[in-house]
């Protein structure tokens, strides 16, 4: 009986030591000397003790695996600590000292930052400068147009930023940690080509090209489309474009977007973007890098828009105007009823220092195909263009700015949908809406597998 127990124990001694070597588990030396046990030196134990050790060793893989995880975690705190140091350094760079902070109903914190302390003036070409006075606006052919006022959730509390400051949405640790990398936080994923639907970006847009353009204007109704996962987004915007669709592409962009990765929620938010090298190293969303100079103390770029359009109900749209100041050459942004937000200095750009060669209007989504099929992320209202007013998303009163700083109707307007079975577009023109189009769609459906 003793020999059988001894043989069994020797086998499990070997098994235990094999598992120990396999997982690379290191055991701490005990203060008291203990006999080393391996496959070549087994010893006898009383039957009860032998049975206890047998049971203990039977579960040795679980114990070893647990110990292995603990050993591997020894190095993680240091890695996490280094990462958090980088996050904190980036937050310090983005979040400027403020004179007042406002709590928004959607959870955002809006900081009122002294105008000349905003991130724009960290740019080497802008250091030491101050915001310019408002320029001459383009002459409007639609002066009598009745445009709705625009609201943001943070301002519904009645709080506002004092004169001499601008409202900036505070960036949190969670915002940065959701990004793929700290270095790329606030920037579009690379590579992006605005002339193709490759890399998962899909569009339904209207555009003009072939002339010199000095700005663009449109009204866009606001929705809260479903975004299937945090690595995708849905947006509706204007693009002011110059240069080739290579590495020298210059763009100025503005509109509304739903981006769970960037903002951590599914609210439609007013946003801006710019780049001078096809999204490679320059530019960013909103005020998340130096560049765009904000002059307004009532509009927070990146803040949630309210109210929104309701399917088969009330429609709410925002009016955006981008134009080039004839005197200084900077590109100004107007949001809503004549509210100047700020400007992109001409010095940021190469081709856009002169004029734009294309203007685009429309929707864009990212299709990551996370489930192996087309995404369920919606564009616009999530409904096809054929459903029309009150159901489909629209752009209306689209115009461009000519060399004489006049807003004029579109000439040679074209429409294009990358994947019309997923998201489509149809245009028209009338006396009330001028040039307009409906666009959007649900994404995955029987015709878009």
UniProtKB/TrEMBL annotation:
Region Disordered: which residues? 121-145
Q: Locate the Neprosin PEP catalytic domain: which residues?
A: 195-449
Name the PROSITE patterns for this protein.
NEPROSIN_PEP_CD
Please give the Pfam families that the UniProt record associates with this protein: Neprosin, Neprosin_AP
The protein depicted here goes by the name Neprosin
